[in-house]
Amino acid sequence: MSQMNRRRALQLLAALGTTGLAAGCASDSQGTDRPGSPIKIGLIVPGSGPNKAIGDEITNGFRLFLGLNNQQLGGHPVTLVTAEEGDSKATGKAALDRLLKEGVLALTGVVSPAVMLGIRADVEKARIPLVGSNASPINLQSVVYIWRTSYVLNEPGQAIGRYLRQKLGEKSKVAVFASQNPSSHDIIEGFQRDYEQGRRKISDPVYTPDTANPAKGMYASAIHKALLRNPDAVFCNYTGAAAVSFIKQLYDEGYRGPVYAPGFLTEGTVLGQLDDGEGGELRGEIQKFGIETALNYSADLNNSANRVFASEYRKAHNATPTTYAMASYDAAQVLDKAIRLAGAEPNSQQVNLALGKIGQIDSPRGAWQFNQSRTPQQKWYLRRVQLDGRMLSNVAVSELDTLG
């Protein structure tokens, strides 16, 4: 793995235009030994359904930060109140309403972009800060009380698009596949914007049914038709079981070339399900032809914050941390900073103002800070699926860009 400069300073941004905080807002006001008054934080995550695995990662990341910090945020003992997100505006609104009745100081979580859009107006009306910890759609803009610690959905497409624009010739043919959902459209929009320059054009994207548990052979026909054009590369957007099924069928249909994607193609348990062991045919094909992804995090990043986070996460869950867990860990970290700034008896409006004042975050992904849109300005990494010991793993090989 090439050596990367993981401590390069990010460009300083202009202030978010917020005014001063309430009087007495300093950590000293709470004393150094005595904890502040108890607070509640609301966590909106799916406890069932296709997004449960991501919800679990988000829960694990937030709880890990609390566990490493004496169950406190900003010097205040925390009760974490969880509400079922579901997968629609109605279920998201029900979760939000329940947490507001609980009297939470702030909110976090939210896996589904549809749920985030669905509860946007209610969050803004309630004037309760929501620090979302999963990717958010392009059209979530002009918000005051919603912050994000993950990324905007067009950014992974941008990152890999810029990389391929430099790597592939102008006449190269790229086949594009994705699940038919709004997130995929945002990702492909970002990819096209940064890849399609000069004579570079992608063929019409192939959108497949959006399902968490694809039927056997579901992608075969679409893949077969696309491969008749003899593409030089494949760009795709799938997650979880759909990612496993797509990659297997891609090779089954005879594709023998590189695969590029946003990093969640190979996040979580995907590589474990693709790895058929030493001497396995699928493992051999993946190693020979390559899968490269762009993401804002890799578990093997060599910085002090990640050494602590990744080690403690593995210790607690016997698993490699994902970008979902990392973004939630950072959501807890930014709330910790903001609540400390907001003083001995913080209210939600003071915490929201403080979120605009916290500056740079020393994160497992590398240093980042909020931009004017309340999303991270952060590094993106190129990751390659390689053997790490005896198992296939995502290995960071270089920095791609700083986006946001």
Compact overview of the structure:
Helices cover 36% and strands 20% of the residues.
Total domain units: 2
- Count of runs of 4 or more consecutive helical residues: 12
CATH class of the largest domain: Alpha Beta
How far is it from the N-terminal to the C-terminal residue, by CA?
26 Å
The counted number of beta strands is: 14
What would you note in describing this structure?
With 404 residues, this protein is of the alpha/beta class. The protein has helices at residues 52-68, 89-101, 113-126, 155-167, 182-195, 220-227, 240-252, 270-274, 281-289, 304-317, 323-341, 348-355; strands at 39-45, 72-73, 76-84, 106-109, 130-132, 146-148, 174-179, 206-208, 233-237, 259-262, 291-295, 369-370, 376-388, 391-403. Helix 1 crosses helix 11, helix 2 (89-101) packs parallel to helix 3 (113-126) and helix 4 runs parallel beside helix 5 (182-195). It is 36% helix and 20% strand. It is globular, with a radius of gyration of 21 Å. A hairpin with a 5-residue loop joins strand 12 (369-370) and strand 13 (376-388). The chain folds into two domains: 27-151 and 300-378, Response regulator (Rossmann fold, 3-Layer(aba) Sandwich), CATH 3.40.50; 155-295, Response regulator (Rossmann fold), CATH 3.40.50. The strands form two sheets. Strands 7, 8, 9, 10, 11, 12, 13 and 14 form an eight-stranded mixed beta sheet that branches. It contains twelve helices and 14 strands.
